[in-house]
Design goal:
Its main location: other. This protein is an alpha/beta fold. It has 24 helices and 28 strands. α6 crosses α11 and α13 packs parallel to α15.
Length: 757
């Protein structure tokens, strides 16, 4: 009594009668592994998402990503990253050189130490600063701009202040700073004098974020009166504490007061005629770009020491040496037409600020940078916000299209990488052209859109594609699977008529072989065989329909149309026979019996598609074409051959394969006899003996069909003399002898009528 067979195996139609206990357990072991591929898959909807719906989803994804980015930007959550990106651009991009027209005179720690050794302690007498002014006047400097606050009388007395004031009046080109505060200190005469001397009449509507101050700290009266121009030195950093922008003007008591460098520039080079225009500060055809807070984004010239520096101690000594007829350390004529900024760089004097290019940057050089920008007019413009967010919308839209409408992962990843590179590269190119185009907001929109589109794609088509890949990866080639993933609607229940080439194979006598082996040996033997044969079918881009025990059903031409389907099927069959010969050598080395495989091929129309129920289905082919291919496989046993193909398969192969016609056979279910052929080999691998065999066999078959059996028998004997193992010739020689003894009936027509399948 045989062991019970799983219901799944019975559902697949496995033949178990007479197998005995061993073969029954073989079905038990193997039934759920490979014998019913796809039969336990649950049918889900594989309909492709309509293009219109997908486009609508894409628009929604883009708008959501863009809106989230806009919200993050308005909430200030991107500011930190935007500023850090700007700093990287400052450091990564070659910056324009500093103008030779701007010179920075610095009081460094070395200067303090030198004077200390000379008996001059800090604070210095102000008459020393008078020597700086006199030296610059001697050389013909355009302006001397002090980034030094003189808000208290000199420690050395009023005469010291008067000495400095006299030098300032004599020069007529000295600019002093004042300091605006947000705390009201009341109004005094000095405030009004600053307003009278420093305020700028600027027409137009100012930027909305322009800072308004309530108080002012001014220079002491003697110096205030002697100064040619004045400017504010109060300015704050960006939110992260880094100085990148400086306000050109600020508001105090309804008046516009300039920053120190801008005050010097207006007084010495561009007096009057300024107006606000679309947020910028304009004078005739000269335009200074401002942000909404009235600040100008600096085009730095490099880290500290970008400008020509002079030591204040050496300037003072040079002036004194010139007065005594000695050679100076610096030549005064080197300052002709120069703008000289005087400031402190000694750490203890607290005028060092962080910038994108250096964590410690002299405050005087910040003013020098602004002055140089004003003189050269090479400002760093900021791209309007609407441009940035339109660009963000474009990037989000393109990446969403790539994700939703591309079936290949590498395409979507390449699109993401390309768009990110375009965003960053565009920002870098813009910076080289003196434009700051923030890449952070567009980059965030791009990544958000990619993430949302990918999540949607995975939640819908991604799971569908994963199910398809899992379902068919062992039965179809990668090319076919890729096509199904792009067109999942092909997997809906139902079928279509297609021209296909059917392949059936079976192992001769495998039931008898399996009875001699243990279940483990049968499984191992069959798995090795099926794996090797399946790999060849997939390599030829065929579709494995099912395994029925040791039998394989496959087809070409679906789900992808293939013009060379018959040639692929024949090539696969020939390769399988060669591979089986190698396997048999391996099996014999392991003490296992050799296998013999029979293959049937037929090309014709069949219904191909997912057939079954909503929960259980197979992607398969049905129809008369399938039945004929199965019967052709069985015909091999009558001719001792390993491959038999139909006439249509032979014709579809063209010149790619050499066939010999075997016979005309009355196949069960066919009203007329069909011609059957044996593929002998691919045309490019034939030997002269094989070609001669096909030619001689065709001649003998022709004589045989003329019922000249004695003559035909002689021809077959000649073939066997050269090819003693040619089974078809042996079969026809026996027939010739039988027909000589018992002639065929009238109307025979050379048709073979097998008495069994």
């Amino acid at each position: 009594m045989s062991s019970p067979v799983p219901a799944q195996a019975e559902a697949c139609g496995y033949r178990t009668a007479g197998c005995g206990p061993k073969i029954s357990w073989f079905w038990v072991l193997l039934g759920t592994w490979a014998l019913c591929p796809g039969s336990d898959q649950r049918m889900s909807s594989f309909a492709a998402v309509p293009l219109r719906r997908k486009a609508a989803i894409g628009v929604l994804i883009v708008l959501v990503a863009w809106s989230l980015t806009l919200g993050l930007a308005l909430a200030g959550l991107l500011t930190k990253y935007t500023l850090a990106t700007l700093d990287h651009l400052y450091r990564a991009t070659p910056l324009p050189p500093a103008s030779s027209q701007v010179v920075v005179a610095t009081l460094s720690q070395a200067d303090l130490d030198f004077c200390q050794k000379q008996g001059i302690s800090w604070p210095w007498p102000r008459q020393l600063y008078a020597s700086i002014i006199e030296f610059c006047q001697r050389g013909g400097a355009r302006a001397v701009i002090f980034d030094v606050l003189y808000t208290e009388a000199s420690f050395y007395g009023g005469e010291d202040d008067q000495r400095l004031a006299e030098a300032m009046r004599a020069s007529g080109r000295v600019v002093l700073p004042f300091f605006l505060t947000r705390e009201s200190k009341g109004t005094d005469a000095q405030d009004q004098e600053v307003l009278a001397k420093a305020s700028l009449p600027i027409a137009g509507l100012p930027p909305p974020g322009l800072t308004t101050y309530q108080g002012m700290t001014t220079p002491i009266p003697p110096l205030l009166k002697a100064a040619a121009a004045l400017g504010n030195v109060e300015c704050g950093p960006d939110p992260d504490g880094i100085y990148r922008r400086l306000p050109l003007v600020s508001v105090f008591q309804g008046c516009f007061l300039p920053l120190l460098s801008f005050g010097a520039f207006c007084h010495m080079q561009a007096p009057g005629g300024w107006r606000f225009d679309n947020g910028d500060l304009v004078r005739r055809d000269y335009r200074v770009p401002l942000d909404q807070d009235g600040r100008v984004l600096l085009m730095f010239r490099g880290p500290g020491h970008s400008f020509k520096r002079l030591s204040i101690a050496n300037i003072i000594q040079s002036e004194e040496r010139l007065k005594h007829g000695l050679a100076p350390f610096y030549k005064p004529e080197d300052l002709a037409g120069k703008w000289v900024l005087v400031g402190f760089t000694a750490p203890g004097l607290m005028d060092l600020k962080p910038t994108p290019l250096a964590p410690v940057y002299p405050g005087a050089e910040l003013h020098a940078t602004l002055l140089d920008n004003l003189l050269q007019g090479d400002f760093l413009h900021t791209a309007p916000s609407w441009v940035i967010f339109v660009w963000a919308l474009v990037l989000a839209g393109v990446v969403t299209l790539a994700v939703l409408f591309s079936a290949r992962l590498w395409v979507t990843l390449a699109a993401l990488a390309l768009l990110l590179a375009l965003d960053v590269g565009g920002s870098l190119a813009a910076f080289r052209a003196s434009w700051w185009a923030d890449p952070v907001a567009p980059g965030v929109a791009l990544v958000l859109a990619f993430a949302l589109a990918t999540a949607y794609s995975y939640a819908t088509e991604g799971r569908q594609k994963l199910a398809i890949r899992r379902m068919f990866s062992r039965y179809m080639s990668e090319k076919v699977i890729a096509h199904l993933m792009s067109h999942p609607e092909l997997l809906n229940l139902g079928g279509e008529r297609r021209q296909v080439t059917l392949f059936f194979s079976d192992l001769a006598g495998f039931t008898s072989i399996s009875e001699l082996l243990s279940a483990e040996e049968v499984v191992g033997l069959l798995n090795d065989y099926l794996s090797r044969m399946t790999d060849i079918i997939l390599d030829e881009e065929g579709t494995v329909d099912k395994f029925e025990g040791d039998a394989i059903m496959a087809f070409w031409g679906a789900p992808l149309p293939q013009d060379d389907q018959a040639l692929r099927a024949c090539r696969a069959a020939l390769r399988q026979q060669a591979a089986l010969a190698e396997l048999n050598t391996h099996f014999q080395e392991k003490g296992l019996p050799p296998l013999s495989m029979r293959i049937g091929l037929h090309t014709g129309e069949a219904v191909v598609g997912n057939l079954g129920s909503e929960k259980r289905f197979d992607y398969t082919a049905i129809g008369d074409t399938v039945n004929l291919a199965s019967r052709l496989e069985g015909l091999n046993k009558f001719y001792g051959t390993s491959i038999i193909a139909s006439e249509t398969t032979m014709a579809e192969c063209g010149d790619g394969v050499l066939f010999r016609e075997m016979d005309r056979v009355a196949v069960k279910g066919k009203a007329t006899a069909v011609a059957v052929y044996q593929p002998l080999g691919l045309k490019d691998g034939l030997t002269p003996d094989t070609v001669a065999l096909a030619r001689d066999f065709a001649e003998a078959l022709k004589v045989y069909r003329q019922e000249k059996f004695a003559e035909a028998g002689a021809l077959f004997e000649e073939i066997l003399a050269r090819h003693p193992d040619d089974s078809p010739s042996q079969v026809f020689l026996r027939r010739c002898r039988e027909f000589q003894a018992n002639p065929p009936p009238l109307g025979w027509g050379g048709v073979f009528r097998p008495d069994k399948k």
